[in-house]
Amino acid sequence: MILNLQNISKSFSISHDAPARIVLNDMNFKMEEGDSVAILGPSGSGKTTMLNLIGTLDRPDSGKIFFRDKNIVDFKPRELDAFRNQEIGFVFQFHHLLPQCSVLENVLIPTLVLDDRDEKKQKYALAEKLLKRVGIWDHKDKLPGKLSGGECQRAAVVRAMINNPSILLADEPTGALDKENVGIIADLLMDLNKNEGLSLLVVTHSQELASRMNKTYELVQGKPVLK
Protein backbone atom coordinates (compact mmCIF):
# COMPACT_ATOMS: atom_id res chain seq x y z
CA MET A 1 0.00 0.00 0.00
CA ILE A 2 1.43 3.36 -1.02
CA LEU A 3 -1.04 5.69 0.76
CA ASN A 4 -3.07 5.33 3.92
CA LEU A 5 -4.85 8.43 5.23
CA GLN A 6 -6.29 7.94 8.70
CA ASN A 7 -8.85 10.28 10.30
CA ILE A 8 -7.69 13.32 8.35
CA SER A 9 -9.43 16.61 9.10
CA LYS A 10 -8.65 20.03 7.64
CA SER A 11 -10.42 23.35 8.04
CA PHE A 12 -9.72 26.90 6.92
CA SER A 13 -10.59 30.29 8.40
CA ILE A 14 -11.04 33.32 6.15
CA SER A 15 -10.54 35.67 9.10
CA HIS A 16 -10.16 35.56 12.85
CA ASP A 17 -13.80 36.56 13.27
CA ALA A 18 -15.28 34.01 10.87
CA PRO A 19 -15.87 30.39 11.93
CA ALA A 20 -13.59 27.81 10.37
CA ARG A 21 -14.94 25.94 7.35
CA ILE A 22 -14.38 22.20 7.54
CA VAL A 23 -13.08 20.94 4.18
CA LEU A 24 -12.05 17.38 5.06
CA ASN A 25 -13.84 15.71 7.92
CA ASP A 26 -12.31 12.66 9.66
CA MET A 27 -11.41 11.28 6.24
CA ASN A 28 -9.97 7.83 5.58
CA PHE A 29 -8.48 6.80 2.23
CA LYS A 30 -6.22 4.02 1.01
CA MET A 31 -4.40 3.53 -2.27
CA GLU A 32 -2.47 0.52 -3.49
CA GLU A 33 0.98 0.67 -5.08
CA GLY A 34 0.73 1.07 -8.87
CA ASP A 35 -2.96 1.98 -8.77
CA SER A 36 -4.63 4.78 -10.75
CA VAL A 37 -7.29 6.76 -8.92
CA ALA A 38 -9.50 9.68 -9.92
CA ILE A 39 -10.98 12.07 -7.36
CA LEU A 40 -14.14 13.88 -8.44
CA GLY A 41 -16.24 16.52 -6.74
CA PRO A 42 -17.50 20.08 -7.16
CA SER A 43 -15.30 23.11 -6.62
CA GLY A 44 -14.65 23.63 -2.92
CA SER A 45 -15.22 19.98 -2.00
CA GLY A 46 -11.62 19.53 -0.83
CA LYS A 47 -10.00 17.79 -3.80
CA THR A 48 -7.00 20.11 -4.05
CA THR A 49 -6.68 20.21 -0.25
CA MET A 50 -6.44 16.42 -0.24
CA LEU A 51 -3.62 16.48 -2.82
CA ASN A 52 -1.79 19.25 -0.99
CA LEU A 53 -1.86 17.26 2.25
CA ILE A 54 -0.58 14.10 0.57
CA GLY A 55 2.13 16.09 -1.21
CA THR A 56 3.11 17.78 2.09
CA LEU A 57 2.37 21.26 0.73
CA ASP A 58 0.02 21.63 3.69
CA ARG A 59 -0.57 19.91 7.03
CA PRO A 60 -3.78 18.38 8.39
CA ASP A 61 -5.40 19.68 11.56
CA SER A 62 -5.49 16.10 12.79
CA GLY A 63 -4.89 12.57 11.56
CA LYS A 64 -2.06 10.58 10.00
CA ILE A 65 -0.85 10.18 6.43
CA PHE A 66 1.20 7.06 5.84
CA PHE A 67 3.33 6.87 2.72
CA ARG A 68 4.13 3.18 2.63
CA ASP A 69 4.96 2.67 6.33
CA LYS A 70 6.02 6.21 7.31
CA ASN A 71 3.76 8.88 8.78
CA ILE A 72 4.77 11.90 6.69
CA VAL A 73 2.84 14.27 8.98
CA ASP A 74 5.69 13.81 11.49
CA PHE A 75 8.46 14.61 8.99
CA LYS A 76 10.82 17.46 9.80
CA PRO A 77 11.49 20.17 7.15
CA ARG A 78 14.58 18.50 5.69
CA GLU A 79 12.77 15.15 5.48
CA LEU A 80 9.83 16.85 3.77
CA ASP A 81 12.10 18.42 1.15
CA ALA A 82 13.70 15.07 0.36
CA PHE A 83 10.31 13.34 0.29
CA ARG A 84 8.82 15.81 -2.18
CA ASN A 85 11.88 15.68 -4.43
CA GLN A 86 12.32 11.91 -4.46
CA GLU A 87 8.86 10.40 -4.09
CA ILE A 88 6.29 12.90 -5.39
CA GLY A 89 5.62 14.26 -8.85
CA PHE A 90 3.21 17.22 -9.18
CA VAL A 91 1.21 18.26 -12.24
CA PHE A 92 -1.22 21.18 -12.03
CA GLN A 93 -3.97 22.58 -14.27
CA PHE A 94 -1.61 25.29 -15.47
CA HIS A 95 1.86 24.07 -16.36
CA HIS A 96 3.83 26.62 -14.28
CA LEU A 97 6.83 26.40 -16.61
CA LEU A 98 9.35 29.21 -16.10
CA PRO A 99 8.88 31.52 -19.11
CA GLN A 100 12.57 32.51 -19.28
CA CYS A 101 13.80 28.89 -19.45
CA SER A 102 13.68 26.48 -22.36
CA VAL A 103 11.56 23.34 -22.26
CA LEU A 104 14.62 21.21 -21.48
CA GLU A 105 15.80 23.60 -18.76
CA ASN A 106 12.33 23.54 -17.18
CA VAL A 107 12.29 19.74 -17.19
CA LEU A 108 15.70 19.58 -15.51
CA ILE A 109 14.93 22.10 -12.74
CA PRO A 110 14.21 19.38 -10.12
CA THR A 111 17.70 17.94 -10.77
CA LEU A 112 19.59 21.15 -9.97
CA VAL A 113 20.25 19.91 -6.42
CA LEU A 114 22.36 17.05 -7.79
CA ASP A 115 26.15 17.36 -7.50
CA ASP A 116 27.23 14.12 -9.13
CA ARG A 117 28.13 14.59 -12.82
CA ASP A 118 27.13 11.05 -13.77
CA GLU A 119 23.71 11.52 -12.15
CA LYS A 120 23.22 14.73 -14.12
CA LYS A 121 24.07 12.89 -17.34
CA GLN A 122 21.55 10.19 -16.47
CA LYS A 123 18.85 12.79 -15.86
CA TYR A 124 19.62 14.48 -19.17
CA ALA A 125 19.28 11.11 -20.92
CA LEU A 126 15.97 10.51 -19.13
CA ALA A 127 14.73 13.98 -20.11
CA GLU A 128 15.57 13.21 -23.75
CA LYS A 129 13.82 9.84 -23.56
CA LEU A 130 10.65 11.26 -21.98
CA LEU A 131 10.46 14.35 -24.21
CA LYS A 132 10.76 12.11 -27.26
CA ARG A 133 8.09 9.85 -25.80
CA VAL A 134 5.63 12.75 -25.54
CA GLY A 135 6.59 14.12 -28.95
CA ILE A 136 8.20 17.43 -28.01
CA TRP A 137 11.95 16.70 -28.07
CA ASP A 138 12.23 18.86 -31.19
CA HIS A 139 10.93 21.77 -29.08
CA LYS A 140 13.46 21.29 -26.27
CA ASP A 141 15.22 24.62 -26.88
CA LYS A 142 12.05 26.68 -27.25
CA LEU A 143 10.62 28.91 -24.54
CA PRO A 144 7.19 27.93 -23.21
CA GLY A 145 5.64 30.98 -24.88
CA LYS A 146 6.39 29.42 -28.26
CA LEU A 147 4.50 26.20 -27.46
CA SER A 148 0.82 25.32 -27.37
CA GLY A 149 -0.96 24.71 -24.08
CA GLY A 150 -0.98 20.97 -24.71
CA GLU A 151 2.77 20.93 -25.45
CA CYS A 152 3.49 22.90 -22.28
CA GLN A 153 1.40 20.48 -20.23
CA ARG A 154 3.28 17.52 -21.72
CA ALA A 155 6.53 19.22 -20.70
CA ALA A 156 5.11 19.68 -17.19
CA VAL A 157 4.37 15.96 -16.94
CA VAL A 158 7.93 15.16 -18.02
CA ARG A 159 9.29 17.59 -15.41
CA ALA A 160 7.19 15.81 -12.77
CA MET A 161 8.68 12.48 -13.86
CA ILE A 162 12.35 13.48 -14.07
CA ASN A 163 13.22 12.23 -10.56
CA ASN A 164 11.36 8.92 -11.02
CA PRO A 165 8.69 9.59 -8.39
CA SER A 166 6.71 6.80 -6.79
CA ILE A 167 3.40 8.64 -7.19
CA LEU A 168 2.15 11.39 -9.47
CA LEU A 169 -0.33 13.87 -7.97
CA ALA A 170 -2.21 15.64 -10.76
CA ASP A 171 -4.58 18.52 -9.99
CA GLU A 172 -6.90 19.12 -12.96
CA PRO A 173 -4.07 18.31 -15.43
CA THR A 174 -6.39 18.61 -18.44
CA GLY A 175 -8.60 21.45 -17.17
CA ALA A 176 -7.12 24.04 -19.52
CA LEU A 177 -6.86 21.78 -22.59
CA ASP A 178 -9.03 21.02 -25.61
CA LYS A 179 -10.47 17.55 -26.20
CA GLU A 180 -7.58 16.38 -28.40
CA ASN A 181 -4.98 17.30 -25.80
CA VAL A 182 -7.07 15.80 -23.01
CA GLY A 183 -6.73 12.49 -24.86
CA ILE A 184 -2.98 12.94 -25.32
CA ILE A 185 -2.38 13.67 -21.63
CA ALA A 186 -4.68 10.82 -20.59
CA ASP A 187 -2.79 8.41 -22.87
CA LEU A 188 0.51 9.61 -21.43
CA LEU A 189 -0.56 9.21 -17.81
CA MET A 190 -1.97 5.74 -18.40
CA ASP A 191 1.15 4.70 -20.29
CA LEU A 192 3.31 5.77 -17.34
CA ASN A 193 1.01 3.91 -14.97
CA LYS A 194 0.94 0.67 -16.94
CA ASN A 195 4.49 0.53 -18.27
CA GLU A 196 6.45 2.33 -15.53
CA GLY A 197 4.41 1.22 -12.52
CA LEU A 198 3.73 4.83 -11.57
CA SER A 199 0.95 5.32 -9.03
CA LEU A 200 -1.53 7.98 -10.17
CA LEU A 201 -3.82 10.14 -8.04
CA VAL A 202 -5.71 12.55 -10.28
CA VAL A 203 -8.15 15.28 -9.31
CA THR A 204 -10.33 16.05 -12.31
CA HIS A 205 -13.66 17.28 -13.60
CA SER A 206 -13.08 15.32 -16.80
CA GLN A 207 -15.22 12.21 -17.01
CA GLU A 208 -13.07 11.10 -19.95
CA LEU A 209 -9.91 11.18 -17.85
CA ALA A 210 -11.63 9.66 -14.79
CA SER A 211 -12.94 6.78 -16.87
CA ARG A 212 -9.36 5.75 -17.68
CA MET A 213 -8.48 5.23 -14.01
CA ASN A 214 -8.84 1.94 -12.13
CA LYS A 215 -10.90 3.56 -9.37
CA THR A 216 -12.98 6.70 -9.05
CA TYR A 217 -13.98 8.43 -5.83
CA GLU A 218 -16.21 11.44 -5.24
CA LEU A 219 -15.62 13.73 -2.28
CA VAL A 220 -18.91 14.06 -0.42
CA GLN A 221 -19.02 16.18 2.75
CA GLY A 222 -15.25 15.92 3.10
CA LYS A 223 -15.01 12.16 2.63
CA PRO A 224 -14.19 10.03 -0.46
CA VAL A 225 -16.98 7.77 -1.67
CA LEU A 226 -16.13 5.00 -4.15
CA LYS A 227 -18.19 5.28 -7.35
Draw up the topology in text.
Blueprint: E1 3-12, E2 21-31, E3 36-40, H1 47-54, E4 62-67, E5 70-71, H2 77-87, E6 88-91, H3 103-108, H4 117-133, H5 149-161, E7 167-171, H6 179-196, E8 199-203, H7 207-210, E9 215-220, E10 223-226
Parallel strand pairs: 3-8, 3-9, 6-7, 7-8
Antiparallel strand pairs: 1-2, 1-4, 4-5, 9-10
Helix pairs in contact: 5-6
What does this structure look like?
- A six-stranded mixed beta sheet has the order 6-7-8-3-9-10, sandwiched between helices. A four-stranded antiparallel beta sheet has the order 2-1-4-5, covered by helices on one side.
- The chain is 34% helix and 26% strand.
- Helix 5 packs parallel to helix 6.
- Strand 7 (167-171), helix 6 and strand 8 (199-203) form a beta-alpha-beta unit.
- The chain is of the alpha/beta class and 227 residues long.
- It has one domain (30-59, 81-226): Rossmann fold, CATH 3.40.50.300.
- The chain contains seven helices and ten strands.
Compact overview of the structure:
The protein is α/β, with parallel strands linked by helices and 227 residues long. The protein has helices spanning 47-54, 77-87, 103-108, 117-133, 149-161, 179-196, 207-210, and strands at 3-12, 21-31, 36-40, 62-67, 70-71, 88-91, 167-171, 199-203, 215-220, 223-226.
